[in-house]
Amino acid sequence: MKENPNPSELVLLAIVTGVRGLKGDLRIKSFTAESKSLGAYGPLWDKAGRKKYQVCIVGESKGQLIAQIDGIKNRTEAEGLKGLELYIPRDALPLLGEEEFYYTDLIGLQAVSISGELLGKVSAVDNYGAGDIIEITGGPYKGLVVPFSMEFCSKINLEDGVLLIDPPNGLLERPGGDTNIKEDNL
């Protein structure tokens, strides 16, 4: 029997967002390229790599999967899983081609502007419905987010740990000049 995976080698594949019906069906947001393939990866794990979940996809609704997890038989049990993040060991993921990467590989990269300014480190890759964005923390700009596209993230060098950012106009401008705004001008 295979031992539990090392938590540092787990990759987030999905999150339980809610419950559907009375029989324990779950709503799951999948981060896989093909959302319905989530069940094909085999058992998924909790973040600590301690608890294993066998997921069976039964449908799709409103951009999310409807699934059942072995052992969950009713709505009350299913509600206890809301917010559960589901992971897989990295070695269970398909091999990538040249110049391909998983979003998880971007976390921790140094974000550097094309002018050479260190912007911080990539702390997250998110999508709130309008496209993927890169969150950058630990640098001189608070709350820095950059659209994740070739236009703005021009080069990814995983070996050197660098993400080259060509920021949209105005993104890195700090308020300057006259910072005293008069109420008459509002």
Describe the structure.
The protein has 186 residues and is mainly β. The protein has two domains: 7-91, Elongation Factor Tu (Ef-tu), domain 3, CATH 2.40.30; 103-165, Roll (SH3 type barrels), CATH 2.30.30. The protein is built from one helix and 13 strands. It has one helix at residues 75-79; strands spanning 10-20, 25-30, 44-45, 52-53, 55-61, 64-69, 85-89, 110-113, 118-127, 132-137, 144-147, 153-157, 162-165. The chain has a six-stranded mixed beta sheet, with no helix packed on it. It has a five-stranded antiparallel beta sheet with strand order 5-6-2-1-7. It has a two-stranded antiparallel sheet with strand order 3-4. The radius of gyration is 21 Å and the shape is elongated.
How do the strands line up in the largest sheet?
A: 11-10-9-8-13-12
Number of DSSP helices? 1
By CATH's scheme, which homologous superfamily of the largest domain applies?
Answer: RimM
Strand content: 35-45%
